[in-house]
Amino acid sequence: MDNQDPGPLTHLLYNLENHGQSEIEPLYCWIEDPLRLLMSSKPKASFQVTDPLLYIKLTPPRLHSATIQRAALLSRLDEGLAKKLVLVAAPAGFGKTTLLSQWLAGRPFKSAWVTLDESDNDPVRFWTYVVSAMRTFDSTVGKRSLSLLTASALPSFDMILNSLINDSLQLREDCVLVLEDYQAITSTEVHNGLSFLVQHLPESLHLVLTTRSEPPLPLATLRARDEMIEANAGDLRFSLAETGAFLHQALSAELPESSIRQLFQKTQGWPAGLRLIALSLRNKDGLAANRVDSISGSERHIADYLIQEVFDSRPEALQHFLLRTCFLTRLTGSLCNELTGSTDGAAWLDQLERDNLFVIQLESVGEQTWYRYIPLFAESIQLLARRKFGEAEIHSMFEKASQWYEAHGLLDEAIETAITAGVFERALTWIEKYIGIHELSEMRTLARWLEQIPQPLLLLHPGVCFTYAAIILYSTDRFAPATAARIEPFLQAAETAWRAEGNLPKLGELLSFRGIVAWWQGNFPGAVEYAYRSLEYILEQDLLWRGNSLLIVAQDALGAGQILKAQAIVPEVRARMGAAQNIHGVLAALQLLSEIACWQGESEQAVELNRQILAEAVGGDEMLDDKGIASLGLGRIAYEQNDLEHAQQLISQALDFALARANEMLQVQAVIYLAWIRAAGNDFQNADELLVSLKTGINNATLLREIQGTQARLAVLSGNLLLLKGWQSITSEENPGVSHLQKEREAFTLARLQIAEGRPDEALASLNSWKADAAANGRIRSQVEAACLEALACHAGSNLTGAMQPAVEALTLGSARGFRRLFLDEGPRMAALLQAILPSLPNRALNSFVVALLHSFPAGTTGHLSTGGSVFQVEALSQQELRVLRLLVTGRSNAEIARELVVSTNTIKTHVKSIYRKLNVRRRTEVREVARELKLL
Fold first, then answer.
1. Are 144 and 177 within 8 A, CB to CB?
2. Could you give the maximum distance between any two Cα atoms of the chain, in Å?
3. Radius of gyration over alpha carbons of the chain, in Å?
4. What are phi and psi of 62, to 5 degrees?
């Protein structure tokens, strides 16, 4: 078969977060234990990934002394130590955090805590927090996972999670990981990763989630397997007795039983509502029971009413403090001072915490003590703040907060608050700094920020524009024309700026990136032009972008049939991509090497390369393209070796991958090979139906021409020449977009048509030049095919003597390189030629090869094969060699044969070498064919 894979660049660099230069390494890669740095109180000169706020997110809230012990719920949580998951799901104000803080404080097992927020929808950030938290169980847990998360080339999350799970297997005692506020997570990728983690947790590790709503995790499966414990709003509501105990503790006084019952009925045991009522009653002169009658409404309305009432009763200075700090997700004294203009922020926070009002203390880091508002209270106070200040004043507060964050090295929070404040220029300055640290390892976080900034401002920052273009390309459908259109304004702005600055290295990177965009858009000539232009500017030490452009150049050389040129370039590409830790680039280089090996008939090397791709393409959906191409490569080799059943399995698998990824190129190649497998069994009708059905869903002109070329060749083989009139008109038109290899395939099909129509001289006129071109450029497969067609043309012209020389040339090269279907797919004409030249073949090896080929044609294709007298005699095999032969042809390795026959592996190697010599073969596939022909099995 002569259809080749269109090119691995289609599957290169799915996520540009894998593109970082090897010399730029995040801080996590420089330290053995990042938590060690988290504990450090040394001042920071600049932003670092391991900032104090990360430590705060890993710190459980401090348990207040004035809490109600809920023994039944705590016992229920204890049951979670025999389960994988504990799910505490209830709306705001139901005491989820307090309950878990009580549980952890009163139990001896190890625990870790992560407080989640919207920014954790970036999978890199989410798993960095989770892994960092788990490292508190044991310093060896997650060490490699954390290194992978912060490497310049991010591997798949499957690899990261597998490493984390394997590390967790060494935990011998119960460990509990709490993820608080999981309702903040909306990322499907994070949900999928956590689902994987939950399903593979070791017995000693238990996950606890607090959330306001049920998360999209495999809860039904966990429930069915009794692998989870749940506590919902109904469970968390105070009972009547707990309501009385709470009010007594909160008020330091007794309420009448009737008032307690009345409040219990109105709040339905809602802890936050009862707490607010207690605060309201505590602020009045005395405890008038009749005030209970004035409290009514839903939970939300109760909260809004009572918070405002509690707020109004507080000193004006405290009201001022609350209104100006309520928008902060986490608070510390000096930050609050920045927003309030006072110096008593730390004192107010301490008082609020001691009064159990509004805030929860987190932890102290250095001289800073951190707190966070209870969300329900903060949300209601924010409503009051918006009514009092208006948006302009609120933006001013966020701007002050962003300046404080920047001054204290908290770049993420500085950017978030600057964007909220509408200070976009300042946000862009910090985003540029952030990109310099992270590149695209947190692509979703960058995308969320950039989407909020007006485009005219973005276009003034070329580095940000280039990054945003990459984010768009790698997070949307890279094949869609709309994606290229969306990217173009940002690339144009960056290119204009860098040309004006004379920044040639950055211009080279941009041109290389344009090559990627053009390739994925099907503009192959444009991609090659960008690649060559970029190489004029890209620095030699720029591993990634120079490697990327060289990959496009190598792919172009392959498409032009220049196998030797491609072979000289690809090793450098592989080395550069490996040094840049870019797994997608490495896989693309391996794919090119396997293509080159196929063209040169090095099937064993091609098999090894494709198996390596399958082994290394570990990850999410972005790896399915690579797996599909590798499966197709293995299927093509199996097809060429005439192992049709195995080829069918592998190519069907490749088609599944193609459909899952909507990869048209891979889909077309897979279906073409499936059609050839049908044709190999003389089922031409089914083969054509497959191709006709394929055409209806393909819009790419190049791919449609490939399908039409296959239909034409099958038409010649089946003798249905009337179908070729339209095809000839298509191929006769000049089309600069048609590759050299495509032109060669069409020229060979035209030669077959000319032979079938009795015009062999016309076929011979073009074949010589194609064969010479193939030989000069290392296309051994094309060289063999051209020689086959020369021999067929001479035979069709009744010139058996003239056919002998090209036939022997083709058979000699073909037998040595493992080509089988290349001969068999020529059909009855080739069978007739081989029968005619069989008696005159110059040596035993060719004689055996041809007899094996003749036996492989479909029944009825060849005449009666009375080849006994024409086959050269072989030296007799010993009984032990016959035993080895029978095991050899089943596909067993030398070691497996040695175990079966109870001898050493070296003895088997000696027998195999002797068998090869006696049968005059070089490959195992040839052993099987010759042994079958000689009836040795």
1. no
2. 122
3. 36
4. -70, 135
CA 570, distance to chain mean position in Å, is: 24
- In the sheet that holds 175-180, the strands lie side by side as 110-115, 175-180, 205-211, 85-89, 228-232
Asked whether the beta carbons of 258 and 86 are under 8 A apart, the reply is no
The Cα–Cα gap between 184 and 186 comes to 6
Supply 101's token pair.
């803080």
Helix ranges restricted to H, 560-643: 563-579, 583-599, 603-616, 624-640
What's the rounded Cα separation, in Å, for the pair 692 and 925?
34
> Which pLDDT value is given to residue 650?
96
Inter-residue long-range contacts of 253-258, CB under 8 Å, 24+ positions, other chains counted: 253/287, 255/287, 255/289, 256/289, 258/289
Looking at residue 649, its amino acid is Q
Distances (CA, A) of 503 to 463, 468, 491: 11, 19, 15
CA nearest 13: which of 544, 738, 771, 650? 544
Collapsing DSSP states into helix, strand and coil, what is residue 212? coil
Assigned token pair, 260 = 């307690």
Cβ atoms of 573 and 547 closer than 8 Å:
yes
Q: Rounded to 10 degrees, what is the CA torsion of 729, 735, 738, 741?
A: 70
Sign of CA dihedral 898, 899, 902, 903: positive
Residue spans per domain, the chain: 58-236, 240-312, 316-438, 454-532, 879-933
Question: How would you classify residue 542: left for phi > 0, otherwise alpha for psi between -120 and 50, otherwise beta?
Answer: beta
**DSSP notation for 234-265:** HHHSPPHHHHHHHHHHHHTSPPPHHHHHHHHH
Look at residue 315 and give its three-state secondary structure. coil
Q: Taking residues 239-244, what's their average pLDDT?
A: 86
Q: How far is CA 35 from its chain centroid? A: 28
Residue 744 CA to residue 789 CA, distance in Å, equals: 13
CATH fold of 58-236 reads Rossmann fold (3.40.50)
Contact 432, 464 (CB under 8 A): yes
- Between CA 670 and CA 688 the distance in angstroms is 14
Tokens of 867: 């080849």
Note the pLDDT of residue 572: 95
Contacts of 472 (CB under 8 A, 6+ apart): 483, 486, 487, 490
The amino acid occupying position 257 is: E
* Residues 6+ away with beta carbon under 8 Å from 341: none
Q: Are 574 and 589 in contact (CB under 8 A)?
A: yes
Number of neighbours of residue 704 by Cβ within 10 angstroms: 15
Q: Please report the pLDDT score of residue 151 as a whole number.
A: 66
CB 410 within 8 A of CB 52: yes
- CATH top-level class of 879-933: mainly alpha
Distance CA 453, CA 469 (A): 14
User: pLDDT-derived band of residue 511, with 50, 70 and 90 as boundaries?
Assistant: very high
pLDDT band at 178; cut points 50, 70, 90: very high
Q: Is 373 helix (H, G, I), strand (E, B) or coil?
A: strand
The architecture CATH gives domain 316-438 = Orthogonal Bundle (1.10)
- Sequence-separated contacts (24+) of 482-487 with Cβ below 8 Å: 484/517, 484/521, 487/517
Judge whether 58-236 and 316-438 match in fold: no
Q: What is the mean pLDDT of residues 352-362?
A: 77
C-alpha 457/C-alpha 465 separation (Å) is 10
CB neighbours (10 Å) of residue 440? Answer: 23
**DSSP letter assigned to residue 838:** G
CA gap 96, 376 in Å, rounded: 12
Cα torsion 578, 584, 589, 590: sign: positive
Q: What is the pLDDT of residues 741-778, one digit of tens each?
A: 999 999 999 999 999 999 999 999 999 999 999 999 99
Q: How many CB atoms lie within 10 A of CB 170?
A: 12
Helix (H) or strand (E) segment spanning residue 881: helix 879-888
